[in-house]
Design a protein that fits this description.
By secondary structure, this protein is α/β, with parallel strands linked by helices. It is built from 14 helices and 16 strands. The strands form three sheets. Strands 1, 2, 3, 4, 5, 6 and 7 form a seven-stranded mixed beta sheet that branches. It has a seven-stranded mixed beta sheet with strand order 10-9-8-11-14-16-15. It has a two-stranded antiparallel ribbon with strand order 12-13.
Length: about 500
């Protein structure tokens, strides 16, 4: 329906993804990428309903956005809505009285009407009765179940986890304008991926990350913590030329012949978008420094749980050998690596991106954190502007956040060269590996002199399962010790008996 107040069309957006926090940001990111104005007059609580009204310039604009969006189910033209079926039917009658030409055209074309409820399943008889209630539309065209000219939907918004007797809180009668790109999730599913690792990222959120990075055909994208190349695959899907980097040569080489990042790209016919891999440490790297090459950096930095977080460094007592035939400063040995804390990872990542991303380009990364997160945990770099901060809840305590930044200021070494992410408290992502693993030995001493720490060591509450396991192990050890003691006593007694017999 034309919205004269906003010079566009108001459509109903129906989201499918259960990742509530990512819905609106992805929609807005795609609209920004395609230079399509978008307005969302009333942003509802996306945890309670998948429906939201959006204003777009045209139906064609909606179709363009839908070709990329994976959290969305589709865009729909609202013919009527209400708090129950009676109100919705009256609203539809008012609509067709105003939009006579549209109604006349649709009435003569092939069609189908689908009935769906958000929050429960509907049986066949219920769906038939719901469709029959709109017989007053007098559709004369053929009913076609495959690719009709028009697909109408009756949407019931019941709400999550409601009993079957619960009546819908909102009913919509709509015409389908565009279906979204949910099929891409299955296309790039990890279940069929050739080369996988412990850090491989699921296809839906990889695609969301690529959309947040505003990828367009011809974009140059780098993932400096490439792993198995999940982000290279999805960025290449949208037309980017991709480069991967990693400090671990084993990851870059792959597991075996035919199972590496290149094989993943070839699997999806994306090898022409794949420029290759580079082994480097972005914290000690001159390969791309002061050369703003990239349209985007999209990455999931290591934080030491599923894969070790390492960077080039010197271990205590290491001897550095300089060879005469090497340029000054070059080391005549294979570089050693040392542990890499998440706050240090972020400092280096922001600095690296500030130096290598083009003005107007984007840094998109995932931040591991906890339920103690606060917005001040995010580094504030003068070269970047925060566009989106989306939280994925992993369990009752741990989270991860998709952070999207836009480069708004050129990097000046004299001004920004010494920038570091510094805090006067312990941020939620500090010592994240120690928190997840509940292992005090994985604490980083540089980030432990904060709130909640005692003598540099955090004390974790052990689970009942862990306490039970420790108790069983202690009881087993005690039983074994008693048995060994008894056996030893028995041997002594036997020896004494032998001596006594000889006497």
């Amino acid at each position: 329906m034309q919205d004269t107040a906003t010079s566009g069309v108001t459509l109903l957006a129906y989201f499918a993804s259960c990742e509530y926090a990512f819905r609106i940001p992805e929609l807005e990111a795609i609209a920004d990428t395609l230079n399509i104005p978008i307005s969302i007059p009333f942003v509802t609580d996306m945890t309670s309903t998948p429906f939201v009204k959006v204003v777009l310039p045209s139906h064609d604009a909606a179709r363009q956005i839908a070709t990329r969006c994976v959290t969305l189910k589709g865009f729909y033209e609202v013919w009527g809505e209400g708090n129950d079926y009676a109100e919705t039917k009256e609203d539809v009658k008012r609509f067709i009285a105003v939009e006579k030409e549209l109604h006349k055209r649709c009435a003569s074309e092939s069609f189908k009407i689908q009935v769906e409820a958000y929050g429960r399943k509907l049986n066949t008889q219920y769906q038939k009765e719901a469709r029959d209630g709109f017989i007053f539309l007098d559709f004369e065209g053929d009913v076609v179940m495959e690719n009709p000219q028009n697909t109408f939907h009756i949407f019931e918004d019941v709400g999550e986890h409601k009993p079957n007797v619960q009546p819908p809180r909102r009913v919509y009668f709509v015409r389908e304008i565009a279906t979204a790109a949910r099929d891409l999730i299955l296309k790039y599913t990890l279940k069929k991926r050739l080369y996988l690792g412990t850090t491989s990222f699921d296809s839906e959120l990889s695609l969301v990350s690529a959309n947040h990075a505003r990828i367009t055909p011809g974009s140059l994208v780098l993932d400096p913590f490439v792993g198995t190349g999940s982000f290279l695959v999805t960025c290449a899907h949208f037309g980017a030329y991709t480069i991967g980097g990693d400090i671990d040569i084993r990851v870059l080489r792959g597991k075996e012949s035919g199972k590496d990042v290149g094989a993943n790209m070839k699997q999806y016919n994306l090898e022409n978008q794949y420029l290759g891999l580079v082994r480097f440490d972005h914290s000690h790297n001159n390969l791309f420094v002061d050369r703003p090459l990239f349209d985007a950096i999209v990455t999931d930095p290591p934080y030491g749980v599923r894969a070790g977080a390492k960077k080039v460094g010197f271990k205590d007592g290491e001897v550095i050998i300089h060879l005469d035939n090497l340029p000054p400063g070059w080391m005549g040995h294979i570089s050693q690596t040392v542990p890499y804390s998440v706050p240090d990872v972020l400092t280096d990542l922001y600095q690296f991106a500030a130096r290598t991303v083009k003005l107007g380009g984007h840094l998109v990364y995932w931040l591991p954190t906890t339920n103690e997160y606060q917005d001040s945990d995010l580094p504030q770099h003068p070269c970047f502007k925060l566009l989106a901060n989306c939280e994925q809840v992993l369990n009752s305590r741990f989270r991860r956040r998709l952070i999207t930044l836009k480069k708004v200021l050129d990097f000046d070494p004299a001004v920004h060269g010494s920038w570091v992410a510094s805090y006067d408290y312990e941020v939620a992502h500090a010592n994240i590996a120690a928190k997840v693993m509940k292992d005090d030995n994985r604490m980083d001493s540089r980030h432990t002199e904060k709130i909640g720490l005692k003598n540099g060591v955090r004390k974790y509450q052990k689970s009942k399962k862990q306490l039970k396991k420790e108790a069983e192990e202690a009881a087993k050890a005690e039983a074994e010790a008693k048995e060994a003691e008894a056996q030893e006593a028995e041997k002594v007694e036997e020896a004494a008996q032998i001596v006594s017999d000889k006497i």
